[in-house]
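It is worth pausing here to work through a concrete case rather than discussing structure prediction in the abstract. The textbook approach is simple: state the sequence, then state the predicted structure, then interpret. We follow exactly that order.
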Amino acid sequence: MAELLLMQGNPTEYSDKDSGDLDLDIVDDEDELEIRDIEKDLEEPTGTTLQKFCRYTRAKLARAERRVLDVGVGVLISLNTLVMMLAHQQMGYDAAREIGEYDPGMDSLSISEDVFITIEEAFAVLFLLELCVRLWIHRLQFFRNFFNVFDAFLVALSLVDMLIIKPMAGSGRVNLVILRILRILKLTRSLRVMRTMRLFSGLRVLVAAVSAFVPSLFWSMLFLTIYMVLGGLLIGNFVMEFINDGGQDIEIRKWIWQHYGTSYRATYTMFQGISRGQGLMGTLGAWLSFFPGKLDGSRGNARSLALRPEAAPRKLSSLAM
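Step two, the predicted structure:
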């Protein structure tokens, strides 16, 4: 008992010795610890005026990174995403003219490709400056995070495209295969929008919360998959006798086969029923979601065997006979 009182009797000594002037919440914050390590360099008395100025600037940038730089970069990424959406919209309008789907309303957005290229290059320069600032603050510690490495890859890819690929493509000296590969790699720029998830504290909390129930979400998806497979097998085997019955209406037999005739079709029909697929709900309504009214909208009306809603009760009653 005396030993227990001795261990509990002087908590201040432990706190003063091991935690110092650091708050316990800050000890667990690696970013805050890194900032404090950077600020310790300000205590170094040696060095030229330029070196002292660089140390001072680095410490101030490290302290302002989360409050100012992250917010500014988040806004920059949002603007870049908006520009990419507008560029894709314009490309879609141009493609519509080529395939005969032109609509006069498409003229509301008429931006030259050169404008998008110029804006894209401006964003590439800004992201390069951001990368340089973060490298100056964190130095080699910057590459400990996978997302930071990915950001550096995106910046390098933008620079290669701007300084090498585009000039070579204009002169016709670049291999078409290499050009296509680089264009595919450029699609990864769209993933930059994911950076906003970790630039704001509210989004970081939300991502952590979502990550917590990912295992439960996986098991829920597995449960639904089992349900779809089981339902497809039960219904598919149940209606197979009707499909093979030559005395029944051939149109109904075709319709049932299109949706439950094979394992793939039956499982896909169950998936449409669970996910409220448009092919199901648009024709027969929610109460008949497991008996969809059309095959596949993408195949067009020529191959569709869609049922009229008023005919659904009659056809379903014939199934039960």
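Step three, interpretation. Residues 214-320 form one domain. The chain is about 70% helix and 0% strand.
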